[in-house]
Write a sequence for this structure.
């Protein structure tokens, strides 16, 4: 075992429905925790954080700067897993592992996968946000 | 939950009498989520978004518990923790990170972290960690005058001759060196290795080489004691605390006071007892079943398992926080098949000892026997070698040990246990001799003439098992890695392994 290698995530398997990028149970639990008054605020903040992380990751990937990639990606691993975006979380973990191993070449494709999944998560969050606004 | 982005420090929660917490986390949405969970549980939470703000808040508020993200925009979280602990060593810091590696966790725990949480974590684990941190703080306050005495450094220690390891292979030399270095500290040692590789001897060597050598060495096999009795065995009980408790009984933790407590097969411990063990590690106190007060003890913990402890964590069988507490200095005992000529040294030493015990005279092992011993994969490791030699000594009068003195079943059983084709049935031969310095069974098998011809005529189920077991050996026993290599799901592999136990 490579003791420096990132550990696999202890997160429970995703229960996301086919076609959806967010684990519905986890997402609902988050909104419950926030409460009806603050749920909208939390979702907007998650969206704002994901937007920022997306920008930071795109910049870091464009510059092929491992430390910056690692930093932006680290935040995505944490937030992605916490909001139940398991596919995003796993893609970010894979990118993290590649950065850790110093694999320069695959960073682009792996980064593209992360950004692709991030985009899908953002689309779904926008839908949730619209539903919250309607309610 | 109130406030919005840009607010760098907020206080929430009525506190309801619980000590305040400081959360240092730079992602605003995660701040909000953690804070919501904590305030809903009745905690008062102060929030900071950067290392600088966090340290300012720490100086101003003197919180008892700090939740600290390891990756902060302005500074490394570990450095922040060191500053915090330098100022107030009694603070319990719960380290939170998405960048989880064993080294990072060990680094954090060695630097004094109270807990190590990997994002994402569930609410129960999060609140449990905070609760433990608060409880740990309370215990420390109550017991300040009875803190464990630091063990003086021991310079130039050498392994005592009686430590029991035989074998001069390079891999064992590295183990000896590791034992010498670790023995000087109080760090918890986690020994892994297959059954029969000498994990208890290793634990004993750690004890014998340490400054606690004159203290007791208490070994407890967590897998061999019924779970409902294990708590009493570890922590003791008071007379009348349950049916059958006819007198006070000090547990193993108390008996090991001033020495070393060796917990073998620690992954077999029931979850409830794992919680108590964690608390014991955090507070250095034991509370026997039925006792009203805890008692301070000064014990070094060495534990062992023949499983992959991380895999037990992944499967939810072993607490992650306990794992990080225990897995501070890992020592992996190599299987005998990776120890080159050690098998011959061990067999000859055992022959001398058993012959003396039985009052017989043997003239060592013949070259054929040595050659066979080098080629066998020894799935039972050292224990199996000792059994074979005991058999030889008991059933023969003496002389040079030849092939015909060995148990008839030795080669067959050894081969069957590893799932490799046998010489008798297929003429393919055993794995080639293991080179000193060691290659794994699987690596050896790859080098062996194990082509399709060697598999013809064997039941498909046997072939599948052989391939799976060789892949597992290649992956150092890691089921998830082996599953990936075999393009199976880990659960399928676990099911197959479970079925083969029957």
């Amino acid at each position: 075992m490579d003791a420096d290698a990132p550990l696999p995530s202890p997160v429970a398997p995703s229960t996301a429905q086919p076609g959806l990028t967010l684990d519905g149970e986890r997402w609902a639990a988050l909104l419950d925790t926030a409460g009806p008054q603050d749920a909208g605020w939390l979702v907007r903040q998650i969206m704002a954080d994901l937007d920022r992380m997306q920008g930071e990751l795109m910049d870091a990937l464009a510059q092929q700067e491992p430390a910056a990639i690692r930093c932006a990606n680290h935040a995505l691993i944490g937030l992605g897993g916490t909001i139940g975006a398991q596919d995003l979380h796993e893609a970010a973990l894979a990118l993290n592992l590649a950065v850790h191993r110093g694999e320069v070449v695959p960073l682009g494709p792996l980064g593209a996968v992360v950004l692709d999944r991030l985009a899908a998560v953002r689309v779904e969050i926008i839908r949730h946000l619209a539903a919250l606004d309607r309610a | 939950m109130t406030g919005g982005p840009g607010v760098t420090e907020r206080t929430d929660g009525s506190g309801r009498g619980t000590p305040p917490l400081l959360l240092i986390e730079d992602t605003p949405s995660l701040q909000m989520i953690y804070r919501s969970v904590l305030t809903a549980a009745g905690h008062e939470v102060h929030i900071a978004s950067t290392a600088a703000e966090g340290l300012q808040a720490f100086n101003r508020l003197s919180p008892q518990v700090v939740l600290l993200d390891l990756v902060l925009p302005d500074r490394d979280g570990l450095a922040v923790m060191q500053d915090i602990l330098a100022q107030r060593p009694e603070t319990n810091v719960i380290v939170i990170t998405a960048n989880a590696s064993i080294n990072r966790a060990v680094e954090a725990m060695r630097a004094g972290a109270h807990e190590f949480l990997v994002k994402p974590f569930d609410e129960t684990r999060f609140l449990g960690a905070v609760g433990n941190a608060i409880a740990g703080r309370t215990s420390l306050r109550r017991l300040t005058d009875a803190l464990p005495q630091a063990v003086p450094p021991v310079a130039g220690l050498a392994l005592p001759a009686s430590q029991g390891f035989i074998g001069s292979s390079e891999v064992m030399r590295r183990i000896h060196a590791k034992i010498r270095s670790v023995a000087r500290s109080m760090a918890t040692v986690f020994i892994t290795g297959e059954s029969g590789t000498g994990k208890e001897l290793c634990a004993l060597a750690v004890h014998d080489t340490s400054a606690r050598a004159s203290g007791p060495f208490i070994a407890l096999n967590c897998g061999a004691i019924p779970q409902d009795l294990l708590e009493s065995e570890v922590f003791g009980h008071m007379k009348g605390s349950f049916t059958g408790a006819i007198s006070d009984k000090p547990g193993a933790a108390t008996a090991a006071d001033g020495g070393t407590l060796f917990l073998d097969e620690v992954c077999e411990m029931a979850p409830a007892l794992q919680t108590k063990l964690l608390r014991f590690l955090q507070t250095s106190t034991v509370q026997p079943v039925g006792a009203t007060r805890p008692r301070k003890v000064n014990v070094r913990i060495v534990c062992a398992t023949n499983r992959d402890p991380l895999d037990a964590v992944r499967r939810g069988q072993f607490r992650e926080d306990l794992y990080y507490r225990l897995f501070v200095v890992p020592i992996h005992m190599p299987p005998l098949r990776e120890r080159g000529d050690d098998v011959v040294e061990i067999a000859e030493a055992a022959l001398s000892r058993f012959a003396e015990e039985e009052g017989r005279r043997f003239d060592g092992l013949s070259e054929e026997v040595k050659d066979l011993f080098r080629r066998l994969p020894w799935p039972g490791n050292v224990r199996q070698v000792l059994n074979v030699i005991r058999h030889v000594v008991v059933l023969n009068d003496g002389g040079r040990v030849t092939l015909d003195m060995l148990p008839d079943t030795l080669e067959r059983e050894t081969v069957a246990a590893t799932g490799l084709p046998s010489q008798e049935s297929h003429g393919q031969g055993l794995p080639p001799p293991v080179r000193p310095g060691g290659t794994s069974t699987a690596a050896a098998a790859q080098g062996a003439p194990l082509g399709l011809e060697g598999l013809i005529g064997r039941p498909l189920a046997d072939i599948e098992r052989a391939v799976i077991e060789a892949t597992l050996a290649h992956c150092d026993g890691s089921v998830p890695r082996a599953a990936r290599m075999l393009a199976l799901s880990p659960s399928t592999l676990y099911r197959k392994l479970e079925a083969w136990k029957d």
